[in-house]
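ingest -> validate -> predict -> emit
validate: passed (alphabet ok, no gaps, 395 aa)
predict: started
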Amino acid sequence: MPDEIKTNTEESGESNSTLVFGAASFLNDMGSDMIAPIWPTYLRNHLLLDFFQVGMIDGLAITITALSKIGAGYASDKTGKRKPFIVLGYFMSMIGRLGFIIAAGFYHILFWKSMDRLGKMRSAPRDAIVAAMTTEEKRGRAFGLLRALDSAGAVVGAVISYLLFTFIGYFGIFLLAAIPGAGSVIIIAARVKEKRGKDVFKGVNFRGLDRNLKLFFLSSALFALATFSYSFLMLFSGGFGYAVEQLPLLYVLFTVVYAAAAYPFGRASDRIGRKPILIVAFSLLILTSAWAYLVHDWVTVLPLFILFGLSTAALDPVQTTLVADLVEEESRASILGSFQMVIGLCALPAGMIIGYLWETIGALMVFQYSMVLAGAATVILLMIRVKDFKGVAKV
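emit:
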């Protein structure tokens, strides 16, 4: 096992170890998604930011997330420690959410959002552990289970936000969101033990990429450039009869769909392969953008969030898993880190381009842009040849 993290329930097997990390993720996402439903209107209505600034914040958040994973993965190998980076990550996210309370403008909120996203340094050690602990045949469902627990916490957090926002407002929600974040810190600190293991991350590495991996990197980069954030969908929906207090319900719908679909998509990728599920994910984003042209009232808004939830649920547990399948174990973490960096670096220009198009031309231009790039990404994805679990080449 490349990374020898042990939990107090390790005797029960890899599933219990996954559940320990899943429980921490559940609580953290509960706190995060108390904020997520009110985040777009907080930026637009309270801080008075324009769409370009909203796009920059969302894009930079994803970029920092990816870079923090790489940096923490490299540093944890150098020190031989995993747990401190996981604990620190949850702690930084908790502090970042408290910082939202004192933010007074674009640069302030950019700083605190960056701290919140730096907390994602916890993900690289966790994902590498899960990949090492599971067989290829079960890896998809393991990542699917983690995503499902993440999303279940998101659903609970979003519902809490909807129920309490009218009474306690933005700052009350920010303060409340820090509490489950503290619970994540406690769970990891109390339930995870470690001893030094073999190094699993050697830094960013693009060597050893075969044609299929290069094509997948390119396809995924284009898809990342095509992907808009849920913030834009919520702000777009605000023009069709939803009050600020009602918009969180749309986020609840998105998270419920995501939570319900993530694990089935992960299991399906174990049975029929990663590539077909990714084709579904890419196609669903195209359908989301196309549906935007049919929206004319509050009812026709709803399929936007259903389609977007399904697309995200199909993408998240499978995209990283396909990279893990395409590389040898000794270079897996390095290639995964490189992949995460590429996707993360694409998020910032994507957010800025989408924000600029929305601010200068309009929302529908954003959806046109997304359809074109996602279509190109799908064509490249179709060119990739993958192997089944017995090593047989498949188109």
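Residues 136-191 form the longest helix (56 residues).
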